[in-house]
Design a protein that fits this description.
Structural class of chain A: alpha/beta
Number of strands of chain A: 15
Largest interface: A-B, 30 and 36 residues
Shape of chain A: globular
Radius of gyration of chain A: 19 Å
Strand content of chain A: 15-25%
Number of helices of chain A: 9
Order of helices and strands of chain A: HEHHEEHEHEHEEEHEEEHEEEHE
Strand order of the largest sheet of chain A: 6-5-4-9-12-14-15
Oligomer: homodimer
Distance between the termini of chain A: 48 Å
Chain lengths: ~250, ~250
DNA sequence: AGTGTTCTTGCAAAAAATCGAAATACTCTA
DNA sequence: TAGAGTATTTCGATTTTTTGCAAGAACACT
């Protein structure tokens, strides 16, 4: 067993479960706890996970954000995910777009909650497989290598045939006037279709994305029913949305 | 043994297993460990693999493997996968069912080969994401938790709209008289649809599955164009298939 | 406070890497 | 074809890395 293999295995476990126990890893890999501890220390030093007493936890997966913001950002996304889950009721049919916030949401779905979940996102589908009470329906189509979601006519076609209770629309840019925007044309088309397929549209969005603008428009703010940020609903940064017909959470 | 030969051998091993041990290579190639070490150092310097203590790993190693379940008869399945790849030509459109043999096939696809690849299997889709020249099209539908492929009407519907060059149909049971059979009715429906969508049907199957029989029938042997096992085509265990209109590989 | 568990530290055995020198193979020229 | 020169491989001695173990300190939980 190469050290590199153990490292990858540990990182993979962390990705899936968000946390690992030293003893579990040692057991699974059939090596001593000391070795695992040393491995985790190295991964910690190279900022690939966070070492804590008894194991390690994930840093979050947004690789682009500046160093030191990683944990912070995950913290925000977790808060958003937790708020989002309160909107979901047993037995509902939901639609999850791609993005790390929604991945976090998928990870935190209570395993005893019965749901039907549509998604075009490969990582989210993999995550949802671990939830035994969730029926997962994958929106097929051409896979985009970098966003890891399906795009294109076939996927949009499949979306056109459904009507779900809630759609959680991972949001990269929201602007009080311009609404939701996106830089990738194909993804815009997907998100438009997703909005059209949903009775209720929820936009989980970390506050630093508020006010930003991209090339293509997805929809106006009037098409969004709920905006979830990590902030309190009365925060001053959300003022621009207060007069709108839109629930803040 | 030329240096170049060793280099190619090592790279191939890395491509297949994602990692190699110095001692293994030295053993297989009947050269000293020092030589292998030097070879790997050269390959490392030319960025063809990553040298680590005790061996080397593939450069794209950090892309996570979906479900780290242990694969039985990996050696045989690798042989089958290698034979299967010889059937694929640049630019073709192929269809991969689920199963570990096909996962092996996906892993070993040369990364420079341009292909379009349909699949209803989540692990295979994840694996194919690492192949930059392969267009991946995921067959959407309801995800079966244990087989990790999509099933049901929607998936079958999507299959009904395509016609691919070759289908690699992971096979759990093949019988000279009864043909291909399967344990799960939903998967039977998927496989039937896959056969219908393909000009050529290839059945990769490890020899121990030959002669076995399950509850539901997928198709007769006449629907299979090529049968690939880890055995030599003239092996006595394959006698029953020799008189049939079916290529053995 | 008490009781397990987890961390740190130091150490020793085993495996692997490094380095230099010797042996072998290969190429090119006279 | 002999022989010099170069490249490649092997071998041995030494150093480094890795790993598991143990004793005591630090920690979490009741």
């Amino acid at each position: 067993m190469l050290k590199e293999e153990r490292h990858q295995f540990i990182l993979n476990e962390v990705r899936i479960h968000n946390k690992v126990l030293l003893t579990d890893i040692a057991d699974l890999l059939k090596v001593s706890v000391d070795t695992v501890r040393r491995d985790i220390k190295e991964l910690h030093n190279s900022d690939q996970l966070k070492k804590v007493h008894g194991g390690a936890v994930s840093l979050g997966f947004n690789t682009y954000s500046p160093v030191g913001k990683k944990v912070y950002s995950l913290e925000k996304k977790s808060q958003i995910a937790e708020k989002a889950i309160t909107l979901i009721k047993e037995g509902q049919v939901i639609l999850l777009s791609g993005g790390t916030t929604n991945l976090e949401l998928a990870r935190r779905l209570p395993s005893k909650m019965k749901l039907t979940c549509f998604t075009p996102s490969l990582p989210i589908a993999v995550q949802l497989l671990t939830k035994s009470n969730v029926d997962v329906i994958f929106i097929g189509g051409r896979l985009s290598k970098d966003s890891q979601i399906t795009i294109g006519g076939s996927a949009i076609n499949m979306l056109s045939e459904i009507k779900v209770d809630i759609c959680f629309l991972g949001t990269n840019s929201i602007h009080p006037v311009e609404g939701l925007t996106e830089f990738d044309w194909e993804i815009v088309q997907m998100k438009k279709a997703m909005i059209h397929s949903s009775r209720k549209v929820v936009s989980p969005c970390i506050s630093e994305k508020i006010g930003s603008l991209q090339r293509y428009k997805i929809c106006g703010t009037e098409d969004v029913d709920v905006l979830i940020t990590e902030l309190e609903p009365w925060d001053i940064k959300l003022d621009a949305f207060k007069t709108m017909n839109l629930q803040l959470l």
